[in-house]
Q: What sequence folds into this?
């Protein structure tokens, strides 16, 4: 289905490298933990060096189903250079706190972006690599999903959403609630100010474009 698979090992202490290599993936190894944004940037650079036009991103924590990749691939096109999985079409399958947090963040990011972002925090996404690399994304941790959404939208690029299946079991999120919340809030406030929004929350009157059909 995919011509190449890269696994970015961001300073793990388990057998991720060995298992990924044994499965046939190309492994990029970070000697120490550098953050999700940094790990993604390493993967994008490797894909670009190999001449790839698109990059499919998938978190390694078991919360996405790789077999649903064709759903995102089918929605790709020049008119939608960013396609994101939408898990909130089935909210009952979402842990309550994560669902509430995601909706809260997505509402605020939708105002910054100027278009609806029903699941702004989903890491299961497909992007046209040339456009993605041209955005100059700079965040190095979990703010990367938010920055990507706002950057694509503010540059006039359409964002598509396709329904994917929430997959929550015994896995544990790698998010550190206090530290990562502070990082995201700092990024959000800085971005809101740079876009000319008057306060910490974007105004309700912000322009919204119609949803993009998936």
A:
């Amino acid at each position: 289905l995919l011509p190449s698979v890269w696994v970015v090992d961001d300073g793990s202490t388990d057998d991720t490298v060995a298992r990924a290599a044994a499965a046939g993936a190309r492994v990029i190894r970070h000697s120490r933990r550098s953050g999700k944004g940094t790990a993604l940037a390493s993967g994008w650079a490797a894909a670009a060096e190999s001449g790839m036009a698109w990059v499919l991103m998938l978190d390694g924590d078991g919360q996405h189903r790789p077999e649903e990749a064709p759903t995102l691939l089918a929605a790709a096109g020049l008119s939608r250079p960013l396609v994101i999985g939408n898990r909130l079409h089935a909210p009952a399958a979402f842990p309550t706190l994560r669902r509430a947090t995601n909706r809260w963040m997505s509402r605020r990011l939708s105002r910054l972006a100027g278009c609806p972002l029903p699941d702004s925090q989903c890491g299961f996404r497909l992007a046209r690599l040339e456009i993605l690399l041209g955005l100059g994304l700079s965040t190095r941790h979990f703010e990367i999903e938010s920055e990507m959404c706002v950057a694509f939208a503010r540059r006039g690029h359409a964002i598509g959403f396709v329904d994917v299946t929430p997959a929550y079991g015994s896995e544990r999120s790698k998010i550190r609630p206090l530290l990562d919340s502070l990082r995201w809030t700092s990024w959000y406030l800085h971005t809101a100010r740079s876009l000319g929004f008057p306060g910490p929350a974007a105004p309700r009157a912000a322009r919204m474009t119609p949803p993009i059909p998936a």
